[in-house]
Design a protein that fits this description.
The complex is a heterodimer of chains A (416) and B (117). Chain A is built from 19 helices and no strands. Chain A has helices at 3-27, 30-51, 57-79, 85-95, 110-118, 125-137, 141-148, 152-168, 181-200, 211-227, 232-245, 271-287, 294-307, 316-329, 333-347, 349-358, 366-378, 382-393, 399-412. Helices cover 30% and strands 37% of the residues of chain B. Classes of the chains: A mainly alpha (416), B alpha+beta (117).
Chain lengths: 416, 117
């Protein structure tokens, strides 16, 4: 890949989400904003290799995209012969650089507003979070599918239907009023959580950690908390992001290789983040004594790790209990898998393996295959472990995690 | 944007309702009506007779004839009790108006599409 093509890719990763949000904010048309931005990137891919990358790629892309949007608006105005000319001119004038679409903004951050649009109550939570990930973060459909443990086609169809519904049913792009915000919450939290997860342990690419996504998730969490200080779920997610994120500096070795929790140098954990996370968790737990919240409970698990000075002193019984609570909220293979791993630490690998096998076969679920392989290896069943590692490696995945699996495979079956 | 507002309800609830309960329902409809005229456009609307009074014309069978049956499209507990056709700015505006309708309805808000016949 040439330098200029690199620049386009980099611009995509760094600026796409923010530029889309700005365009939607200015022109209030999700479809035109997307098309305009896609067009701008196409032009960049064609022109930058010839002319060189601009000094300010974001500005170049935004200008190009806006020109495209205005072209389309003009074309629509011409096509809409029935529209009185006056109204169309006014719309164009506004689009060309009038005041921002929403006066009296409750939610200043464009990306959060775009997430809130995607999480309209008339859209299902699954549709909302998929749409938000696609539009706000620019995550490609296959990556989203992996996060949802779904097929690419299912996720693509869901996103297409959601966009179509927004257009056909007239779901408006506007900032929700204060009283409407709690109703948007489930979808927004789901989207931000998925975003954090992708940043924490990337499903694609070479790097395990995508810091920009994790940073984005934290920023969105803090914004949500500012808007909704009384919502325990928001505090819970903020606590989770802080507590898991606190391990950042210890999770990679000098070569960018995976350092598992058991081997991490805990002196490198961010104590300030842990302290802040624990404070939020405490408040959120006290606020939800009867009905535990999804994110608060997950934060409690993260807290158990944060409180343990060493791997050996980890309170696995508490962790398993928290997973039992989590299962009453959401019984999914992911939760069952994490619980099985904790059971293995508490009651030994055989017990953990039994729990894991009770989940049932999930051939496309790499984490489960890898966990199974680890437990088999610990039980001395090396051939089966090697087979499971190979199965996991046969799936597409993150480069750093694959290297880690390869090392584990090699330890079981040196001939490989 | 044009929306068809479909009000589904359990007919037995209306039958068993007391006069004050019925008046409350009428009041809600009047409030909806007034709000729509103020903030949107009311293009139409009717209360419907009970589902048992429907006749249903079916697609042609093997013999090429279209059968008629006595009763509604589907024998469900909740039946269509009435509809409105409203032009509103967007879905949020439409929803906000529909909140005035009686609480015991399940209300489907279906956008219309323009078809050139």
């Amino acid at each position: 890949m040439t330098g200029e093509q690199d620049a386009v890719s980099r611009a995509w990763r760094e600026h796409w989400g923010r530029l889309l949000a700005l365009l939607v904010s200015r022109y209030r048309r999700l479809d035109l904003a997307e098309d305009g931005l896609a067009d701008a990137f196409e032009r960049a891919a064609a022109r930058w290799p010839i002319e060189g990358a601009p000094d300010n790629p974001a500005a170049w892309l935004l200008t190009t995209a806006r020109r495209r949007v205005l072209d389309r608006l003009r074309a629509e105005a011409v096509a809409a012969r029935a529209e009185p000319l006056l109204a169309t001119d006014a719309a164009l004038a506004e689009a060309a650089g009038g005041p921002r679409a929403d006066p009296g903004d409750l939610v200043a951050d464009e990306r959060l507003r775009l997430v809130l649009l995607c999480c309209h109550p008339a859209l299902s939570v699954e549709s909302s979070s998929a749409l938000a990930l696609r539009l706000v973060i620019g995550l490609p459909v296959p990556d989203i599918a992996r996060l949802f443990l779904s097929r690419d086609s299912a996720v693509a169809a869901r996103i297409t239907r959601a966009k179509r519904k927004i257009a056909v049913a007239g779901i408006p792009y506007r900032t929700p009023g204060q009283s409407e915000l709690p109703g948007r919450l489930r979808g927004v939290l789901a989207a931000v959580y998925l975003l954090f997860n992708e940043g924490y342990s990337a499903s694609v690419g070479e790097d395990l950690i995508r810091s920009s996504l994790g940073g984005e998730a934290l920023r969105l969490c803090r914004l949500l908390h500012e808007l909704l200080p009384a919502e325990p779920a928001v505090r819970g997610l903020l606590a989770l992001v802080l507590l898991q994120g606190s391990r950042h500096a210890a999770r990679l070795d000098e070569d960018g290789g995976v350092v598992v929790l058991a081997d991490q140098d805990r002196s490198r954990w961010d104590r300030a983040a842990i302290e802040e996370g624990m404070t939020h968790l405490g408040i959120a737990l006290r606020a939800t004594p009867v009905r535990p919240d999804l994110y608060v409970t997950q934060a409690a698990v993260a807290a158990c790790h944060a409180l343990a000075g060493t791997w050996e002193s980890t309170n696995w019984r508490a962790i398993v209990s928290w997973y039992d609570v989590l299962l009453t909220i959401t019984d999914t293979p992911v939760v069952r898998l994490n619980r099985a791993v904790a059971v293995a630490e508490l009651d030994g690998p055989a017990a953990g393996l039994a729990e894991l096998d009770a989940i049932g076969p999930m051939p496309g679920y790499g984490d489960l295959l890898a966990a199974r392989a680890d437990l088999l290896a610990r039980l001395g069943r090396c051939n089966e472990a090697a087979e499971a590692y190979r199965e996991a490696l046969a799936l597409p995945g993150n480069g750093a995690r694959r290297r880690h699996l390869e090392q584990r495979l090699h330890a079981c079956a040196p001939a490989d | 944007m044009k929306y068809l507002v479909l009000m589904y309800g359990d007919e037995s609830r209306w039958e068993q309702a007391t006069p004050p309960e019925r008046e409350a329902v009428m009041q809600a409809h009047r409030a909806f009506d007034a709000a729509v005229r103020e903030r949107a456009r009311l293009l139409g609307g009717e209360a419907l007779a009970e589902a048992a009074s429907s006749s249903t014309l079916h697609p042609a069978g093997a013999d090429g004839a279209r059968a008629v049956t006595d009763g509604p499209f589907a024998e469900t507990v909740e039946q269509l009790g009435g509809f409105y056709l409203v032009e509103a700015a967007d879905l949020d505006a439409m929803m906000e108006l529909c909140h005035r309708l009686p609480d015991y309805y399940t209300i489907e808000i279906r956008p219309t599409v323009d078809v050139d016949l």
